[in-house]
Amino acid sequence: MGKGKCGMQWTDESIAFLRDAAAMNRYYETVAEKITPQLQENAHVCDAGCGIGELSLALKPYCRHVTAVDADELAIKTLEAHLIEGVTARCGDMETLAPEKPYDAMVFCLFGRTEDTLRIARKQCRGKIFLVKSDYSHHRFSAGKVSLGEYTAGSTENVLREKGVVPVHH
Fold this sequence. Notes:
Layout: E1 2-3, E2 9-10, H1 12-24, H2 27-35, E3 44-48, H3 54-59, E4 65-70, H4 73-80, E5 87-91, E6 103-109, H5 114-124, E7 125-132, H6 153-162
Parallel strand pairs: 3-4, 3-6, 4-5, 6-7
Antiparallel strand pairs: 1-2
């Protein structure tokens, strides 16, 4: 069982659940299709906090290379079992696992605090940054009403506006 820095608890059961859910809908493909028009040709994209890599695999047809990074060993081992050409899996902390050359784009899908993602992206990316956030205020699968607090689309927009960045909705 693994536990990444974000607190995501990866288990064989949670991995099987996510893989089944991904096979039943087009969430990751839809995210990839929304991002694609914004990518430069032949982009090297980083999927930061990739989990088991469903978005990484969905992005690959649209770019030259995807580097999928997650701090959780079990999640990365799961991705490595399903790797395709042009996708590299790396296990480690995004803060310290910098690329040799800056990425052309970075995707942070449901990844941490906005301030953290911006700090990481400033150091590791020379191009566009995509923050994919939940558009609801409470966790949808909890037994109780657990607030997502600063991890929502709304709170992300507020931070971006404070920094003079205009959020784009798709």
